[in-house]
Amino acid sequence: MNHRIDPADFACSLLAGQLADAWLDYHHKANLTSSGQYVTTIRSFLKFTDSHLAAAGLDPGQARLDGGDIDLTEVIYQWEKDLLAHAKPTSGRPNAMAGSLLTLIGHRADRDAKVPERLRRRAAGPATFRGGTNEPLDEFANHERLALRDAAMADVRALEKRLSIGQALLAEGEDPRTGGWRPLPNLVWAARHGVLQMPDLRAHLPAHYKWWPAPLKELLVDPVYMARFRGKYGLMTTVSGLLFPNELDLQSFRILLLLAMGDATSEEVHDLALSDLEFSDEGVRVLQTKLRASRVRPHLHGNDGPQESDRPLDEYEAPGETAYPGTGNWDVPGLLRRLIAVNELTREAFACDPWLFTAVEATANRSGIRAGRALFRRPGRSFTDWIATHPDLEGEPVKISLPHDIRRVRKTSKTTRVAALGGTLTDLAGDDHHIEVFRGHYAHGTTAHVLAGRAVNRAQRMVFNKIQPGKPVLITEGAEALLSESAAAQELGISTEQGVALQQGELDMGVVNCRDPRDSPHTAKGRFCHVAPAMCMICPNAVVFTSQLPRLLMLDDHIQHMRKVLPPPAWKAAWGVQSAALQEVFSECAEQLPEARKQIEDGKYRLDLPLGMRTEYDR
To answer: Quick one: which of 5, 172, 242, 435 has the most CB atoms within 10 Å?
Structure first.
């Protein structure tokens, strides 16, 4: 591969040449096989240095690694912030590029004593911001989802109310170049026609806002107008906000659409343009483009969402004032219509691309306003900043768990559907995901885990309700002779035929007898029990004759032997309940145990077990 850096391409040509030399020397000294990352990093840093220093009124040509009046340490920090603002939340690219630049500067510092000590120390340190993470994101809790939804709906109503006030002022306004710069309607007119500039405000308004006309001063303190700055810059941005939404205003639509469009990712919603929408009486057909999957898919959203109705007053409405009703519904078609409506004047006033999320913000040098696609990454315009503008009852920002990643809203929408269905993994995946995709990207969430736990618990309860540890019935030698009589059989809960079969040993399961081997709680009804004699001591069908005590003692000996072999948790799980049941039987016939033990020693009895169980019992 061929890589080239031409210092003449940059205003900071001296700095470009020094970094290029450091790159070439480092490439050879480190015996690198590829330098693409370093070339990309150098070009990015030089391009940023040109614009950053020019905006600060400094000469980029004075920037250099070996001293000078320009503090490159601060430039590096600002460049890192810019990288972070234009990268995805989980991207490790800002960290990697910053590390590459610091490596080259450190390499130059080791060979040039003129590199300033401050820059030398910065090169020896790590990148300012950490790298990205592959840790999967969890969804928001349900109370957080409701808080985000309600705050976003209140913000949409407040925005529509603010824009309606701006439209009324615009109708009253005239050109301030002839009608004066102090009437508020004239400033609104100037914002609409692109003549609202900071130089004009500085020239025609008093230096301090306390000498401004009352309507202008009230504009910066009335919560309806959402003023976030003071002075002339605050006046310019607030007047602009009476006509055009900014990025913070559009965050509300972004959140509500992600909650309503469960099949759309955040980038699909963010990339929507007017040409991607087709409205009809049934709803809206949205053409969604997913770049990562190289897939374009249409989706029809019907008119089936919540409607505007009676509601409590929001924070901007006094009890005696008429509640602002809003201008549409809260389903996907309604939200998209409202988003188009609030941006209609933006598209008329500015020659900009027809993105749905088009915001009007101050220019980089704060001299005027401009329109552009909302990125939601600028300082003060991120998802975290939007959350911070909504205080709780104590006046603190509403408690929303970290990280404040917009993709968690999408996951919340998906898992809300999971909670509604509460079915199998196929049901939860839905129509827009393969089962494996859902398993890898959504099944790790708290909601899915809770539902999975409930499913497991439900299955366990069904098993435990069916298989409840029973207590074998102990029949003495005298009672054994009466089993063929109807009264004794009825007392035992068996038929006379079963009593006769028990007497004759036809229902002997190897260790104990069984009332009915084809009605076992451990096996499907009608099938012969396949877990005898391992589970007989915890089966309610078990019937113990005192003549079977020698074999029960032999079984107990084996269980105690396994206690020495198995780890305690494993022994308790496999044999703990059976051992306790045996001890209970032995306690009821303690007087007969010595004779039973003598019979074992005389070799009159052995454990009669199925072939498949002998390995377990004999080891």
So the answer is: 242
